[in-house]
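User: Before I run my own analysis I want an independent prediction to cross-check against. Here's the chain; please return only the structure tokens and, at the end, one sentence I can use as a sanity check.
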Amino acid sequence: MPVKNRLAELHDEITGWRREIHANPELQYDLPKTTALVEAQLKAFGVDEVVTGIGKSGIVGVIRGKTNTADRCVGLRADMDALPMNEETGLAYASQTDGKMHACGHDGHTAMLLGTAKYLAETRNFDGTVCVIFQPAEEGGAGGKAMVDDGMMDRFGIEEVYGMHNEPGLPVGEFGVAPGPIMAAADDFEITITGKGGHAAQPHNCIDPTPATCAAVMALQTVSSRNVDPLKQVVVSVCTMKTSSEASNVIPNSVLLRGTVRTLDEGIRDMAEVRVIEIVQSTAAAYGCTAHIEYHRGYPVTVNHEKNAEIAAEIAEAVAGQGRVHYGRPPRMGAEDFSYMLLSRPGAFVNIGNGDTAKVHHPKYNFNDEAIPYGCSFFAELVERRMPAA
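Assistant: Structure tokens:
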């Protein structure tokens, strides 16, 4: 079963929604234009219920099957928010708002789920209930957690849940899926190492925090190289270093560091937090400085349930064809707040090919509209196979 004919017919319409969303990017939970478009379309499709304001600005559309005798419910999720960056694509439908851009393809995810909802509301060729979940604030705002904490799963009786993300570099029409941990937990830290500033010509009268900071940055690399089994994965990255002075002849009083820790195992996650704090504090002390550390736990590991990952792979192969589904791939060290939904219910998160495009979070990135029929067909076929019509 390749791309469904009806979804191929809807391709231009779905592309139109995608480009309208792309031109009007919004951030985190503040999504008035995007949610208005989603709500209006769902109502126009004739879905049975449209519930807004879940997890602040999330939306759930409820679609009941033609033969609704089975007490089953499957959730399908898309994220809606953009990124705080400027677009450099030069497209006719490029962002109309400075400092905001759909650089991760959430416009495409939302449009594909809308297309799926239209198809399912028209055909209703399943026995049970589908909840189409439109989530805010994936980019750092934990919108997935907000919707789960708002009681979404129990309120709608969702039994299993599936999500999808585009992947530049993977050919259009191909899918990637794996059981177990597929994306990392993402934690971040902010460190201030303080000494005693002064004139650069009199370092003996100062306690220079700069060499202490440089030593701490290098020592942090031992978390990966000396504290973790080489077959396990952890990434410690210091991404920002800023002194309290910008003058070339001033020894700063303090240095600020910001960075991230990525792990795929909760035990290693705990160990990494302890080691980052111990290493920075002891290194600073060795140089006569002090260290203040703020360590923040972010999104947890995204873990696909084995059975559901196998189901997703079978359905992806039915849509894409044999040899076009990459099953059992190594995990990626990016993070995803669909992890909260997978902690709440069994399910799986899959990748869909975006072709040879710029990578996500790049100013020249653009979602590939040729992927739309494949993504919609995957979701639709998933519903019809998981809840076959009586």
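Sanity check: DSSP finds twelve helices and 16 strands in the chain.
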